[in-house]
Amino acid sequence: xxxxxxxxxxxxxxxxxxxxxxxxxxxxxxxxxxxxxxxxxxxxxxxxxxxxxxxxxxxxxxxxxxxxxxxxxxxxxxxxxxxxxxxxxxxxxxxxxxxxxxxxxxxxxxxxxxxxxxxxxxxxxxxxxxxxxxxxxxxx
Length: 140
Hints:
This protein is α/β, with parallel strands linked by helices. It contains five helices and four strands. It has one domain: Rossmann fold (3-Layer(aba) Sandwich), CATH 3.40.50. Strands 2-1-3-4 form a four-stranded parallel β-sheet, with helices on both faces. It starts with a strand and ends with a helix. InterPro entries: LMW_PTPase, Ptyr_pPase, Ptyr_pPase_sf, Tyr_phospatase_low_mol_wt. This is Low molecular weight protein-tyrosine-phosphatase PtpB.
């Protein structure tokens, strides 16, 4: 099974979600992308610091979402606008959800870009239990 996590620039939220999910579901193909990512841009230093503190794998540098990514089994976005953009660009796909929607929650995952480390830690603490719920749902 292939899962793609999607945010805006692929430097904060989606790489954090990718790393958490890869640690919790090592047998799955898990990647992250950005709708407006600059290919090769480095992942945020605060993201890398939090991942290192939690002994999680580092993601690759930023990659843009492409038409090939629509073929993933599951696409989880950080916001409704990301989800809606993908559906608009590639057609109404049944396998595109916000991460909260798929985990039976509501709302968007806020973008910590430009914020301090505590703001990034808040996002990490929000994503961690969401990915636990996703793991349970996927592995049923």
